[in-house]
Design a protein that fits this description.
heterodimer, A: alpha+beta, 9-stranded mixed β-sheet, 6-stranded antiparallel beta barrel, 17 helices, 30% helix, elongated, B: 5 helices, 12 strands, globular, disordered N terminus
Amino acid sequence: MNQRSPAGAAGSAGSPGPLRALAVWCDQWPVIAAGAAPDAPTAVVRSGRVVAATPVATGAGVAVGQRRREAQSRCPDIELLPFDDRSLAATFEPVVAAVMAFSPTVEVGHPGDCVLASRGPARYFAPPGGVGDAEASLAHQVADAVDVVLADMGWPGWVRVAVADGAVGSRLVAAHLTVGHTPLVVPVGGTAHALSALPVAVLASPGVVAGVDPGLANLLRRLGLGTVGAFASLEPADVLARFGGPAVMVHALARGVDDRPAAAEVPAPELVVVATLDPPVERADALAFAARPLADDFHHRLASRGSTTSVVSVEFETDHGEACSRLWRYDASSAGLVDRIRWQLDGWLSGPVAARPTAGVVRLRLVPGEVVAATGRQLGFWGEETAADQRAARVVARVDALLGPGSVAMPGRRGGRSPAEQVVRVPAGVVAAVDTGGMPGLAAPWPGSVPPPAPALVHDPPWAVEVRDAEGAVVCVDGRSHLSAPPAHVGRPGHTQQVVAWAGPWPVDERWWDPVAHRRRARLQIQCVEGPPLLVACEGGRWWCEATYD
Amino acid sequence: MPEQVFDSALIDPSVLVAPSALVRHTLPVADAMEKLFPEGGMVRGTTVAVDAADGAGATSLALTMVAAASQAGSWVAVVGMGDLGLGALLACGLDPGRVLLVDRVPTADWPRVIGALAAGVDVLVVAAPDGGGRTGQKTDRGRPGRNSGRSSGGRPGSRSGGLASGVGRRLATLARERGNVVVTMRWEIVGFEPSVRLKVVDSQWDGLDRGYGHLRRRRMAVERSGRGSAARRQQHWLWLPGDDGGVCAADPPIAGLDDAGPCDAGACDAGPSDRSASDEGATVLEWPGRGS
């Protein structure tokens, strides 16, 4: 029971394992959508550049990205077709419908490729008797189903199917299979190896990871990191330091770690956006117009929470109550989302007659979602770590709901000199997103910090104390961090006690380069006759009790 | 949506199924602290009161007490301690990934929050609910210039902060029904006797001198009383924190002698040999009847 089979590691209680995804890739979809035949030299051109070409044209030297003239010079009898956005999605609809027979959560990237989480379907569609690899069996079944659809369009054998770790990984593996290759199943953990020989440009592009610098692939190539494998061999910390945040996600993909968190957060209800359309909208372009502010709103709500999602569910409802919902890959741009909304309505309107809507769309909902959550997770029996963690997560949500978001905190290590800075309260809801173990500056020496043990009570804000010397004058600290006299009486104003022992000062001159945040302080540890030792700080000639060694 | 099941746990605990029979009976504590508990650990379903005489040390004692359970996988919730030093919390050995801090709980929501937390964590460390006298406003961090100079040394102490009477009994019922360990911090609840009561009666720091050194370690005397098997009053000496920041058994101080103590030998991870030392260190005070 506990054995990890390649088909499904979901049964193991500890880490849920990588998300296994099955990708369907139909190469050069624009030419298929344009109605070209595979044995004719045809290419689709958008803005003067080739975006897709038939194999015959490719064989003659036509390549994606070439200018129209160049393509015509390579292959004089080429037929150039205009790019038609609408037919693109509409013609892909039968393919998606065929794939959706295997799983309701099919995530469409662009017309031409779609991904589904394969763990559940692989078990459900496993061959009877349990013989053979369930994932390979599923891959063959999906490939056969899609092939039937493509054969109707005149492109038999054109589909490529791959199963690998993660949506991006499986999509890339499928995209780089040769035409006519049998479905490929990359074993668990083998995705990085499968991708390692590919040029790094396939990963380091804005289309794969949102926000990536368009020049990243070129830069990596010039640095001698020409392949995905070479990039993957770098240390993640080095990648972050040299190339920035988005590159870390690229790097994680290169190492076979999917960008999607394994334990996805259930989207908060306030992230769902709904538009009611009155009058009902019956045309895709009109819907796209109405959807634009909605997509902007969706994007801003996500961004203002500092989060993102990798998939979004677009849901339509018509005046007659028909509904259509589909998962799309979300590339963190509202314009891309509007395209997908339009593609979906195009596909619905031109789908099978029986499934077509009979009235205009009156409601449009955008729901951020995670496929991971839909696959479910097997909890341990009682008392096991995952169960306890899940209970705690529910408690966080419950208390947040009672007291307002952010009222439950968890300790997070940060760098710093004062006791209040070294470990801070992080809202428990975002702890999963912040790696508390790897904050920069954590291992820095922080000269000037008071040696351990740490005080058990930290007063924030600190309270005022009086520090006086034996003559009763206020003790002050000069520019060279020398005390004017040893402290003899310390305490609240008017209630000072005699000092038994003291140590310090520990001078700190923080952020001297910043006129606003600049702070100069000197700290003393003071033990009075009664009570626990205090950590007092002198700042600007006044003394504050920062913490108590309780 | 979070489950709606447990929000009335404090009001009507009888509807809940007690899971305490299904899980491990005691939560572990550090070796040096086993002496403080008759069962050698914190028994699920019981309450522990931690307090201190003037010498203080209650916060460190409570944190260290729950640290071993945290490391063993239990979640710990700390309620109403806005001035808790998180550095000390980690230094005491709590796993930061399994600690929930709820700093400010309005009195009106207090029972429901406690009930909700009890449903999800093993150990609840509860300070007296916000009676309106605490500092710890998170709004004005940074420069101390805005401090109102308000008394923050005055702890809510024996006040029950506007909660209805019987809060102690309800906490005990909650702990028993849910199988938690409820630790009350510096909170003398009138008419309520916890299962185990730990009181720091003496606390002396080491390492600080007149102008040099720094706080290094502390020897504290912890007096245990309570109900049932804990009724026999005992006093134990601990290094908390010891030289390595952990906790280990200490010898009682000898008057007029600045002794080095066992921690210098690097034996803070109290092994079997250390336990015999703590046996000697335990001053057992025999009391005829049940403790208070």
